[in-house]
Amino acid sequence: MSTTLQDTTTLHNGVFMPWFGIGVFKVEEGAELVQAVSIAIKEGYRSIDTAAIYGNEESVGVGIRQGMADAGISREELFVTSKVWNADLGYEATIAAYETSLKKLGLEYLDLYLIHWPVVGKYKDAWRALETLYKEGKVKAIGVSNFQIHHLEDVMKDAVVKPMVNQVEYHPLLSQKELLSFCKEQGIQLEAWSPLMQGQLLDHSVLKEIADKYQKSTAQVILRWDLQNGVVTIPKSTKEHRIIENANVFDFELSKEDMERIDSLNENQRVGPDPDNFDF
């Protein structure tokens, strides 16, 4: 189990991926985002997650360079993720989208590139493109986002390279136990987006009760639950005190009983679209 902000899990191709990172969903281009990314890196974060559709890759790139300078670290010490959007899921279009993301970020490579959503009839061509990028050494690892078990099985049926990561909506009201178990069996690392359910869980009575017991915030308890379930987590925040607080989850451990209490909160409730019923 991870004990520091720099601890990593090893993907099935041997690449080290931090257990903890910062997400930037719905954060607009500009100074606030640049500052958030640079502060996170300065505070010890080593994983930054963005996507083409977020429309903020340029500011993320500026924040990365500023953060590296402030922290005195090299590019090789960071783990940067982006994602190809639904409109670019053809083979050539996916490769072009990757190059566009690199240019906007101002980077020479990505550590992880994901297919953002499983658009039926398109994601297999996109996966072939990701395999090409991977084989050519342009990206360290490749994976998918929002894929259910049947999507993963469909991809793996023809894939030469198995997905290394599956980033999905994951929080106490959507614990997706079958998907988590399947990914563990297949050696695919599950990663949580919206781990705090876009803030909706911060006042949950059971989670607050558990948080009080450990003298931690509700957010810290949820993020610790992620880690103890073997799930990589990338909470979003632009506020310095939240960025610092979110990462302060390595000095305590939830008991088996409290893990089970949180597990029991599942209601299969989403804040994002259902991958099987998403109007792409």
Automatic annotation (TrEMBL):
| Residues in NADP-dependent oxidoreductase domain copies | 31-267
Which SUPFAM superfamilies does this one have?
A: NAD(P)-linked oxidoreductase
GO MF, one term, reads:
oxidoreductase activity
Could you name the domain of life of the organism this protein comes from?
Answer: Bacteria
Q: Where is this site: Lowers pKa of active site Tyr?
A: 83
Q: Which residues bind substrate?
A: 116
Q: Which of UniProt's keywords are assigned here?
A: Oxidoreductase
Q: Member of which family?
A: Belongs to the aldo/keto reductase family.
UniProt-recorded name of the protein: Glyoxal reductase
Q: Which organism is it from?
A: Paenibacillus glacialis
Upper taxonomic lineage? Bacteria, Bacillati, Bacillota, Bacilli, Bacillales
